[in-house]
Design goal:
426 residues, alpha+beta, Adenine-n6-DNA-methyltransferase TaqI, Chain A, domain 2, four-stranded antiparallel beta sheet, 8 helices, 32% helix, 22% strand, elongated
C-alpha cells in the first residue's frame, strides 16, 4: 500500500507548515515539553581532559543528526558538568555556528554525555514523542522556519526562546508512533543506499589516488630502469628522473597575500581563496596568473583522498591560510600539484604545529621531476584518466543528492500530514 492523503484538512495557521489534517493540532515546541530551552554548560577548552565524560559541542553533531567519530571528541570531568548530563530522548538544537542541527540523544549509542553552551536542550512530554520532533527537524518546513528566523535575527543565531516558540503540527501519540515506525524503515533504506554510493565513491577515490601515485612517481614505461628516490613514501623512481626540493621548482609569493575580514569584503566576481579553495567572491584581486596553492593551515593534510594543493588561473585574491607558488618552466604545475596531494605530511608537520605547514618545511618537500617530454605525456594521460573517474564520481554524487532530497521530501510529507502512513505500517 502507498500512503494517501488524509480525508480532510484545515489550516495550520502557519504559512511554512500549510494545511494539516483536521484532527491534528498546531502547538509551540515549549508546550509539548517538560523541560524547554535549557542551555548547556559554558566550559573553556583549557578544562578539557584526555579521559572523562564526552562533552558535546555544536560541531560534534552532523547534518544527519549523528555524532562525529570519537577520535575528534573532547572530554570533561563529570563533576564540572553536573546538571548538564543528557538522558535518553533529550533533544539538542544548535543555536549558533552550525545552526539548526539536531540530535536525538540515545545513551546506548553515544554513552554518557554532557552538552555545551551553544546547544539548547528540550525534553518532550509523554503525549509527544521525541523522535517525532527530531524528524520534524529534518523536514523542509523546519528549514523554511529557520530561514525566516535567521533573516529576522541581527546576530546570526537562533536562541533557545526562538526554538521554544517554534510551531509544530502535532498528531495523536498513536499516529506519531506509526509515523516514526514508517520513517525509521524508509529513511534506513535510503541511508543504506547512500552509504553504498559513498563506499563506491571512496573506492573510486582510492583508485584515482593510486593511479596518480603510480604515474607521477614511476612514469608510464613499466620496463624502465629504476633507482632509489631517497623519498621514503615514494621508493624507487625511473633512473633518469631527479628528485628536487620544492623551493628550486617554484617561487614563493606568500608575502603578497592579504586576508580580508568578512566585514570588509566587497562582493564581486573574483574568487577569494583560502586553505581548501574558494571561500568567497570579491571585487578586486592580488594575482592574475596561473598559480599553485597549498594549504598552510586548515587543510586536510592527514585525511584520506583529500586534496591539499590546487591550481588557480586568472584574477584571484588569496588569504594567509594558503601558500602561493609560481611554478618555474622546468616542470608542469599539474605534476607538482599531484605530488603534493600524495605527499606524506607527517615528515613535514610535527609537534605543536601538526595542523600547520610552515614555509620552511614546505620548501623542503621533495618533488620527482621527469624530463620535459615525459612531463607532457604524464600530464595528458592523467588528465584523461582522472577526468573519467571524476565524471563518474560526480554522477554518483548527484544520485546521493537526489536520495537526500527524496528523504527530506518524504519526511516533510509525513510529519506535516500531507500523506497518511497509518495504514501502511505493519
Amino acid at each position: 500500500m502507498k500512503p494517501k492523503p488524509y480525508p480532510k484538512y484545515k489550516s495550520s495557521g502557519v504559512k511554512w507548515i500549510g494545511d494539516i489534517p483536521d484532527h491534528w493540532e498546531s502547538k509551540r515546541l515549549k508546550y509539548i515539553c517538560s523541560e524547554s530551552a535549557v542551555y548547556g554548560a559554558n566550559i573553556k577548552s583549557e578544562e578539557y581532559i584526555l579521559d572523562g565524560m564526552r562533552f558535546l559541542r555544536t560541531t560534534d553533531i552532523t547534518d544527519e543528526g549523528e555524532l562525529i567519530s570519537e577520535e575528534n571528541a573532547v572530554y570533561i570531568s563529570p563533576e564540572s558538568v553536573k546538571g548538564y548530563i543528557l538522558d535518553n530522548g533529550d533533544i539538542l538544537f544548535s543555536r549558533s555556528g552550525t545552526l539548526g542541527r539536531c540530535l536525538l540523544f540515545n545513551k546506548n549509542r553515544f554513552g554518557e554525555c554532557a552538552y555545551a553552551g551553544y546547544l539548547v536542550k528540550f525534553k518532550v512530554d509523554k503525549e509527544s514523542l521525541p523522535a517525532f520532533v527530531y524528524y520534524f527537524s529534518k523536514s523542509k518546513n523546519f528549514g523554511s522556519w529557520m530561514s525566516m528566523i535567521v533573516i529576522e535575527s541581527t546576530i546570526g543565531n537562533i536562541n533557545g526562546q526562538k526554538y521554544a516558540n517554534m510551531t509544530l503540527p502535532i498528531p495523536s501519540p498513536d499516529a506519531q508512533k506509526k509515523m516514526i515506525l514508517f520513517l525509521d524503515k524508509e529513511t534506513s533504506r535510503i541511508n543504506s543506499l547512500i552509504k553504498k554510493y559513498q563506499k563506491l565513491i571512496d573506492l573510486l577515490k582510492e583508485k584515482r589516488t593510486a593511479l596518480i601515485s603510480q604515474v607521477v612517481t614511476k612514469g608510464l614505461n613499466p620496463n624502465v630502469k629504476m633507482k632509489d628516490s631517497g623519498i621514503e613514501w615514494v621508493g624507487e623512481i625511473p633512473e633518469h628522473w631527479e628528485a628536487k626540493k620544492l623551493e628550486y621548482l617554484t617561487t614563493n609569493l606568500d608575502s603578497m597575500r592579504v586576508p580580508i575580514s568578512s566585514e570588509d569584503r566587497v562582493s564581486g566576481e573574483i574568487p577569494y581563496y583560502g586553505a581548501t579553495g574558494i571561500i568567497d567572491y570579491v571585487d578586486s584581486y592580488i594575482f592574475n596568473e596561473k598559480l599553485l596553492l597549498i594549504g598552510e593551515d586548515g587543510a586536510p593534510f592527514f585525511e584520506k583522498y583529500k586534496d591539499v594543493a590546487f591550481i588557480i588561473n586568472g584574477k584571484s585574491w588569496v588569504n594567509n591560510h594558503a601558500h602561493v607558488l609560481r611554478v618555474k618552466d622546468t616542470i608542469k604545475s599539474e605534476l607538482i600539484m599531484h605530488q603534493l596531494n600524495i605527499t606524506d605530511y607527517k615528515f613535514y608537520i610535527k609537534g605543536s604545529t601538526r595542523d600547520k605547514l610552515n614555509q620552511d618545511e614546505l620548501s623542503k618537500i621533495l618533488i620527482v621531476v621527469p624530463p620535459s617530454e615525459e612531463q607532457k605525456q604524464i600530464s595528458d594521460y592523467l588528465n584523461n584518466e582522472t577526468s573519467k573517474i571524476d565524471t563518474l564520481i560526480e554522477k554518483i554524487n548527484k544520485q546521493i543528492e537526489l536520495l537526500k532530497e527524496h528523504k527530506t521530501s518524504l519526511i516533510s510529507h509525513v510529519v506535516t500530514g500531507k500523506v497518511d502512513v497509518r495504514g501502511v505500517v505493519e
